[in-house]
Amino acid sequence: MDSSEMLKKIIDDRKWNYIKANDSWSVFKIMSEFVNGYETLSRIGPCVAIFGSARIREDSPYYQKAVETGAKLVERGFGIVTGGGPGIMEAGNKGAHEAGGKSVGLNILLPHEQHSNPYIDQDKCLNFDYFYIRKTMFTRYAQGFIAFPGGFGTLDELSEALTLMQTDKIADFPIVMFGSEFWNPLVDWFKHTLLKEKMISEEDFEIFHVVDDVDKAVEIIDEFYKRSELKPNF
Questions:
Q1: pLDDT digits (tens, 9 = 90+) for 70-87
Q2: Residue 227 host element (H or E)
Q3: For range 52-57, the mean pLDDT
Q4: pLDDT tens digits for 124-167?
Q5: Strands of 103-108's sheet, edge to edge?
Q6: Which of 23, 79, 80, 195 is most exposed, with the fewest beta carbons within 10 Å of its own?
Q7: 10 Å Cβ neighbour count for 195?
Q8: Beta bridge partner(s), residue 125
């Protein structure tokens, strides 16, 4: 090995050691996000999570339905927790805020698109760097999920909840998919591809509900907790 190759090897080794050291120290940042989330959310009481696209505008019918859903859930004694951003998230928080209920935002720090909306209670706005920690907070402390139309992020959050319930990793809680025109093609794919190929079972379709009516969505949540205890899901 000549001197130039030796120098390159030394530099590469130092870079790799630096990366490994950073990986180790990142554990403390991860821990701090978990601790802050647990300490804050364990005090807020029962909440329902409202998910959906950050790109849905205020003049969309889905936005208005999410506002109405948030308000009606507050009337039933629930707070609202969202991803903290604009679009459907803002609508859910707005409904809770205008109805005088708890309005929680779990904001994710992104290079574009995401900023916390103005309807979150000041003491209940949390910022996360890590999506997986944020999803843990939702699945642990939300007593129900209502997924409005959305993109990859909404599908990620919905799939997380469906998977954890399917595998009995969390206690059962109601999952509602709002907007049959949007969600039915996905449900059809579940039926005609996943079920046909035996990737899922018939009983997996009992995990979720597809609705178009705000009162029906709220009723599903409310009726579930007339039979079940309100508590963290893990």
A1: 999 999 999 999 999 999
A2: helix 214-227
A3: 96
A4: 999 999 999 999 999 999 999 999 999 999 999 999 999 999 99
A5: 125-128, 103-108, 79-82, 47-51, 142-147, 175-178, 208-211
A6: 23
A7: 15
A8: 105
In this predicted structure, the answer to whether residue 228 has a pLDDT above a threshold of 90 is no
Average pLDDT over residues 202-215: 97
Alpha carbons 87 and 51: distance in angstroms, whole number: 10
**One-letter amino acid of 7:** L
DSSP 110-162: -SSS----TTS-GGGEEEES-HHHHHHHHHHHEEEEEE-S--HHHHHHHHHHH
Q: Quick one: pLDDT at residue 7?
A: 44
CA gap 179, 184 in Å, rounded: 8
Residues in the chain: 234
Spatial distance between the Cα atoms of 140 and 118, rounded to a whole number of angstroms: 25
Quick one: DSSP state of residue 19? H
Decide: helix, strand or coil at residue 85.
Answer: coil
- 8, 13, 79, 99, 103 from 95: Cα distances, Å: 59, 55, 10, 6, 9
Average pLDDT over residues 30-42: 93
Residue carrying the six token digits 């319930």: 165
DSSP conformation class of 196? T
Strand partners, 148: none
Question: How much is the pLDDT for 136?
Answer: 94
